[in-house]
Design goal:
The protein has two helices and four strands, in the order E-E-H-E-E-H. The protein is mainly alpha-helical. It has one domain. The chain has a two-stranded antiparallel sheet with strand order 1-2. Strands 3-4 form a two-stranded antiparallel sheet. Strand 1 and strand 2 form a beta hairpin. The radius of gyration is 21 Å and the shape is elongated. The two termini are about 25 Å apart.
């Protein structure tokens, strides 16, 4: 039986036996890589905020909790949601569920300045550098995976 390949609007679709096209981005591994890239983007924003507030009195640095994925590319049970939960600011609001994906840095002992600020610029810059390298690695893996899939289905 010959496989029917339907025309699509681009090289981002995989043919399926039932005549429906499945987006390449729907693959669990690529979805996990996209989630990881979004996490690195958000972490970069949080780290930049820490650096920007390095002279703000009583400011405590924050960081994001890294998402955990199982072997299938789905978020592991018990892992943080990856986004901020709703906050209940009025008794008429729905109750908040889940926890925050932010984690406070616990190394605030002797590094806290007299004004109460606990941002260590050296540590924050190391985190920014590591985050940038990790993001570049995930981006490279994502683009190579896409190119490999496109080659496999004959779109390249």
């Amino acid at each position: 039986m010959a496989r029917q390949i339907l025309p699509t609007c681009g090289a981002d679709r995989l043919p399926q036996a039932e005549g429906r096209a499945m987006a390449i981005n729907d693959l669990p591994m690529l979805s996990a890589l996209r989630g990881k890239m979004q996490w690195h983007q958000e972490r970069q924003r949080v780290l930049a905020e820490n650096i920007a507030n390095s002279d703000t009195p009583n400011f405590r640095p924050r960081d994001l909790v890294e998402p955990k994925f199982d072997a299938g590319g789905q978020q592991a049970p018990g892992a943080p949601m990856g986004s901020l939960p709703m906050l209940r600011t009025s008794t008429g609001h729905l109750a908040a569920t889940g926890g925050s994906s932010f984690a406070q840095d616990r190394k605030v002992g002797y590094e806290t300045r007299p004004a109460g600020n606990a941002v260590n610029l050296e540590d924050e810059m190391l985190k920014v550098s590591q985050n940038q390298m990790d993001y570049a690695a995930v981006t490279t893996l994502y683009s190579r995976s896409l190119n490999l899939l496109k080659t496999a289905i004959g779109k390249r």
